[in-house]
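note to self: the first set is below, dont mix up w the second
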Amino acid sequence: MGTISLEGLEFFAYHGFYDEEQKIGNKYSVDITVTTDFSEAARRDKLSATVNYEELYRITADVMKRPARLLEHIGHSLIEEIRRAYPTIGAVEVGVSKYNPPVGGVCHRARITIKG
């Protein structure tokens, strides 16, 4: 077993609890770590025997295009889509951050982490 991670994926998207957030948009960051057995890929140098991180990026970009109210929903959707594409993986951990969230003061970013 091992892990495959994509860190610091950045998107401009239209998520947020408030309607205004969904209109003006914001910058988001996503981190993904997949636990899987990639021993065959390592031995045989075969992409088809592992999780393709280009596909992970595409899945993430597609999910980020769909407006959502909560970061938790985005994380959950990412895990569902990744598991649909790679049903044999062991675990998925997703972190989603929103830059400059509307909290009434200075906050660089809000972040959730979800495992599934």
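second set (the one i keep forgetting abt)
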Amino acid sequence: MPIFFQQQINGTTRLGIWKIEETEDFFLSNVPLQKEVTHPHKRLQHLAGRFLLQFLFPGFPYELIRIADTRKPYLPDEEYHFSISHCGDYAAAIVSSDKRVGIDIEIPSGKIERIRHKFLSDDEISNFDPEVSGRYSKLGTLNPELLTLLWSAKEAVFKWHGIGAVDFRQHIQLQKINEGDDTIRCFFAKTDQRLVIHHHQFDHLLLAWIMSNGHDGWA
């Protein structure tokens, strides 16, 4: 099985990344296609994401998934909270039986430089200068890898919130990268919450995820 990465976060929450190497027939023999997806690769991504939900939690009722007006997939009775992300030949998912969650995976690309002012405030651009963030100083000022990480972190928060109407620049305010535990501090102005975003860097892939803690997230 091409499970690329998996993590048991706690007793009720798991995440994983699936490297898509199977055919469409393989996935269709395990999970149904719940919506019309015309592009073949996007259809594979869609199927792999739902297959991964059951891989993480056997018995996950994928047939009950509904799509909200905000395009967020959900279960009507909230038996599980979950989030799915796709990128290239990878599908990622996080599932929890008791916590709201969000996940995002990205492959760094120089194209993100063109849109940085659409999702980062001027304060954030200054705050994450490599001289401050340290870890990325050898790679140059606001390089694609760092920009992609910051974008992925905000995407995870957006999916965790799940209600839409979020301004990435104004509402999701990234504060600091904590190098010791691979987390990012975030203030979510829309609900006046302090959040902790977790991230993991692979050779060619960036992962960000968040889970509700039920209390102030910063130590």
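remember for set 2: The CA atoms of residues 9 and 15 lie 7 Å apart.
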